[in-house]
Specification:
The protein has about 375 residues and is mainly beta. The chain contains 4 helices and 23 strands. It folds into 2 domains: about 60-220, Immunoglobulin-like (Sandwich); about 240-375, Tumour Suppressor Smad4 (Sandwich), CATH 2.60.200.20. The strands form 4 sheets. Strands 3, 4, 5, 7, 8, 9, 10 and 12 form an 8-stranded mixed beta sheet that branches. A 6-stranded mixed beta sheet has the order 13-23-22-21-18-19, with no helix packed on it. This is FHA domain-containing protein.
């Protein structure tokens, strides 16, 4: 397994945060005061998310050009590059490689054939990257995009990583097929592969050792491929601040990011944790004077729906047996939906106007910094 990580966080978590996160009730680091944004599978991995929403404990893929790689092609022909992908998780977390794409220069992405998906921790599996537009001599830049997912129960986080290398082709079409000599020189954040138009010896050239390909996060490609974010220009990070309006004291969390150990806020009739219960957001039907309608409130489940941020989207999961409405459309139990700016949540399907919440996003350069939930009193 390669000894170096494929990517580095722009600001890695200090040791003090990891130590503080061991306390299940802790929400901020005791030493540096930073919010403890835990991985969705923290129960198993014990990892914290970096500033870009990545848990390096769960998601640590490595890519290598295989040792002994042998590739021959003529100018105008094609090159098949044998590579391998390894799951570098140190805590036994599986990684799912969902797609691999490649492109030459500024051309269109081409999806590579992938006959497998799941990588257990420490496991390495092969894939072939093709370059079929070597129609002239010179340098050909080949970019590879690897899409991966980490899963926990019903949830999934998806990411994309990229790397590149240069093919330097010498020779003319019709001459002897050039031999690819894979060298260790860096080009961009990848490697250089030299294709010589004339073999210098009669022996076939091969790579002497595996070559690490340095993978980096490809956030823009993640949004273009709809792996993450609401669209190409808007996304909701895990550390987005959530504000609550129109709730009585202790019936909603303090304003701030979701810092529960599992990253989920539970909304329903149940008392909140601050009130001695097990919920996070208490939903009760009230009139404009604040009087509680007990009869209608009993129609709400104790855990009616859940809120969490996944793949840079605000997600609602219906858990109440009677379902709910969003923007007037009814959804039943176990339905998972992405919330957008301006959406209206109506927990009572038979009396939608009795209780409603409106969402509002505040964004800066496409990044949603604040989410507001406001009660609508009929």
């Amino acid at each position: 397994m390669p000894s170096r990580p494929i990517s580095q966080s722009p600001r890695t978590r200090p040791t003090c945060c990891t130590r503080s996160a061991l306390n299940a009730e802790a929400t901020y680091c005791d030493d540096c005061g930073k919010p403890l944004v835990r991985c969705m599978s923290f129960e198993e991995c014990g990892g914290l998310l970096d500033d870009n929403g990545l848990c390096h404990t769960c998601v640590t893929p490595h890519m290598q050009i295989e040792a002994g790689a042998l590739i021959e092609a003529k100018v105008g022909g094609a090159v098949a590059l044998p590579v391998s992908i390894t799951n570098g998780s140190r805590v036994g977390r599986p990684l799912f490689v969902t797609q691999i794409w490649s492109r030459e220069g500024t051309g269109d992405w081409r999806e590579e054939r992938l006959s497998w998906e799941k990588l257990m921790a420490g496991e390495k599996r092969p894939v072939t990257i093709t370059a079929d537009r070597l129609n002239h001599s010179g340098v050909h830049n080949i970019e590879i995009l690897v899409c991966v997912a980490t899963r926990w129960r019903w949830r999934q986080e998806c990411y994309a990583f990229s790397t590149n290398f240069a093919l330097e082709v010498e020779g003319e079409a019709g001459k002897a097929g050039p031999v690819v000599n894979i060298g260790g020189e860096s080009a961009g954040h990848g490697n250089t592969v030299y294709i010589s138009g004339q073999a210098q010896t009669e022996r076939t050239q091969k790579t002497r050792q595996a070559i690490d390909m340095v993978l980096v996060r490809a956030e823009k490609e993640e949004r273009k491929l709809k792996l993450r974010g609401l669209d190409e220009g808007l996304w909701v990070p895990r550390n987005a601040k959530i504000c609550w309006h129109g709730f009585s004291e202790n019936q909603a969390p303090m304003d701030g990011p979701i810092l529960r150990q599992d990253g989920i806020l539970a909304a329903g009739r149940s008392r909140t944790r601050a009130e001695g219960g097990g919920g996070d957001i208490r939903l009760l039907v009230q009139d404009q004077q604040g009087a509680v309608d007990l009869e209608q409130s009993r129609l709400l489940s104790r855990r009616h729906f859940e809120l969490y941020i996944e793949c840079d989207r605000l997600v609602l999961r219906v858990t109440g047996r009677s379902g709910l409405r969003i923007n007037g459309e009814a959804y039943g139990p176990d339905k998972t939906l992405t919330l957008n700016n301006g959406d209206i949540i109506e927990p009572l399907t038979r009396a939608p106007k009795a209780l409603a919440l409106k969402t509002r996003f505040h964004s800066e350069y496409g990044r949603v910094s604040t989410i507001e939930f406001s009660r609508i009193i009929s």
